[in-house]
Amino acid sequence: MFFKKQKKAKEKIQIDDRLKHIAFIMDGNGRWAQMRGMPREFGHSNGAATFKKIGRYCESIGLKYMTVYAFSTENWKRPQKEVDTIMKIFDEYIDQCFREMQEDNVHIRFIGNLTVFSEALREKMARIDRETSNKSFVLNIAINYGGREEILHACNELIREGKSKITEADINRCIYTTGCPDPDLVVRTGGDLRISNFLLWQSAYTEYYFTDVLWPDYSSRDVDEAIASFYSRKRRYGGV
Ligand code: IPE
Ligand code: IPE
Ligand code: MG
After folding, report:
1. Which of 38, 184, 188, 189 is most exposed by smallest CB count within 10 Å?
2. What pLDDT is stored for residue 9 in this prediction?
3. CB of 30 closer than 6 A to ligand 1?
């Protein structure tokens, strides 16, 4: 007798309250494309597809907050053609969010210095944020984001308020991620072992996970691996 060998459906990983927020440094798009003899831009469009897939997966396993590093304050140094392509992909993504924002269970927020973007784009981002604010899965998209810029922005905001002495709570209120718990886990793809100006204030006690997988190849199984590593660790926060 023959039994058709059935591919077992992947069992969903279990998470609990210890893991509410994962942040991703989505790195390796350029190398992924170059390895295929393609221009770096090809990597960015494939990376955008991976971002949507990983977002859906993280929501499906019950994660509450996800942050993605899409474009840093330093990424403007890249060749104009590459920057233009990334901004075009971003524009298209915003338009898609705008059209479909009520379909998913996602509160989309944009974090970073958004003042560099056009009034029209900023208005769209603000509306997407506002009109999805009743959804339970929070997705922060970091664009023109830098951790140092964010801290300076918060300090300048507090100076404007007339403060002469500031507290951690004041900074927490004025950073772009305000309202989100600090990331429990930061994952960086692409093999580099650095944080590249990402969530400097928020990651004081974050766990880090680095993988050589290039972002366009990143899969739900890779997310599971990072989560398993997270749960194998003991967070002491300076205690014993
Ligand atoms: C990350 O991939 C995406 C952005 C920084 C916008 P890269 O473009 O940095 O890809 P690599 O690291 O050069 O391979
Ligand atoms: C970090 O990647 C920024 C994003 C993923 C958006 P980079 O590719 O810019 O980082 P470095 O230059 O290797 O540190
Ligand atoms: Mg890179």
Report:
1. 38
2. 65
3. yes
Annotated domain spans of the chain: 21-146+182-231
Within 8 A by CB and 6+ apart from 49, the residues are 216
pLDDT single digits (tens) 146-203: 999 999 999 999 999 999 999 999 999 999 999 999 999 999 999 999 999 999 999 9
Superfamily of domain 21-146+182-231: Decaprenyl diphosphate synthase-like (3.40.1180.10)
Residue 39 has pLDDT above 50, yes or no: yes
Which residue's C-alpha comes closest to atom 12 of ligand 1? 28
**pLDDT-derived band at 1, boundaries 50, 70, 90:** very low
Q: Which residues contact 83 (CB under 8 A, 6 or more apart)?
A: 75, 76
Q: Is the pTM here over 0.90, yes or no?
A: yes
Dist CA 231 CA 240 (whole Å): 18
Q: H or E stretch including 106?
A: strand 106-111
Instruction: Just list the catalytic residues.
Output: 27, 75
Does residue 28's CB lie within 6 angstroms of at least one atom of ligand 1? yes
Query: Strand pairing partners for 106?
Result: 137
pLDDT at 165: 98
Report which protein residue has its CA nearest ligand 2's atom 1.
196
Calpha distance 27→187 (Å, rounded): 10
